[in-house]
Every structure is written in structure tokens, then in C-alpha cells.
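Support request, priority: normal
Reporter: lab tech (M.K.)
Component: structure prediction queue

Hi team, I submitted a job for Myoglobin from Rhagologus leucostigma yesterday, and the status page still shows it as pending. I've pasted the exact input below so you can check whether something in the sequence is tripping the parser. The sequence length should be 154 residues. Please let me know if I need to resubmit or if it's stuck on your end.
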Amino acid sequence: SSIMSLSEAEVQSARGAWEKIYVDAEDNGTTVLVRMFTEHPDTKSYFTHFKGMDSAEEMKQSDQVRGHGKKVFSAINNMVQHLDNSEAFLGIVTPLGKKHATQLKIDPKNFRIICDIILQLMEEKFGGDCKASFEKVTNEICTHLNSIYKEEGW
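Reply from support: The job had stalled in the queue. We restarted it manually and it finished. Here are the results:
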């Protein structure tokens, strides 16, 4: 059963859209993070080892940035695989949300920023249809993360 507001057709087209960008998970994940750090420099403060990096070039080359970019994309990939199984989906989103809320104390607005940059990159690389079919998924992810944050007292 699905807690998602996505129909089976929407799930399929979202997966198709995601696959296109996930093929180059490390490069695209890195691009997304570098954009976030460049356009929203305050987000860098959460990452002690990225703090001193100012140039986008330097960030792109960083193993830590690349590693985290890949990690972000892997986590989303896991969610995308379970869009039609609410229990499994929540089993991925919940611990992730809790960790970011309690241990890492990341402002939840950053999830929306990352999702928006992913959508932007999808549109640039694969066009508006690709972006449109993934938009509902990012809304779903952010909605669930935000409710986990509320439970944790944010």
C-alpha cells in the first residue's frame, strides 16, 4: 500500500526520470552539492571538511564532496525504489530524518534546497517532462522529512 499521493503511472515515470540522472550518481550528486554550497554558502557550515573550500572547482575535486554527493543520490535511489511500498519508504526516510534532526542538526529547509537543485539539473539535462515527473517525489520526500523533524521537536 502506498502513503504516497502518486499513482502507479506516476511512480513509473518518476523512476524513469530518476534513472536518467542516477546513471552518473557521483558526478550528478557532486554537481548538486557544489551548486548548493555555492548558491547557499551557509549550508557549508554543516560540513566541517568543506568549510574552507571556496571555489566550485575545489569542491568538485574533493573526495568528501564527491562521496557525500554519491551518498545523497544513493539514499534518494533507495526511496525511489520503494515509492509503492509505504512501509519500506518510511523505513528509509525515518532514520535518515532522525539522524539529520538530532545528531547532525541540519535545518530541514536544506532538503528542499537539494531537491530543487536536483529538479533544476533534471530539467537542464533532460527537459521539463523529466523534471515534472519527479517533482511529486521530491515533495513527498520533503513532506515526510519535515514531519519527522516535527516529531523530533523542531
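The domain at 8-152 is CATH 1.10.490.10 (Globin-like). The chain has a mean pLDDT of 93. Let us know if anything else looks off. Ticket resolved.
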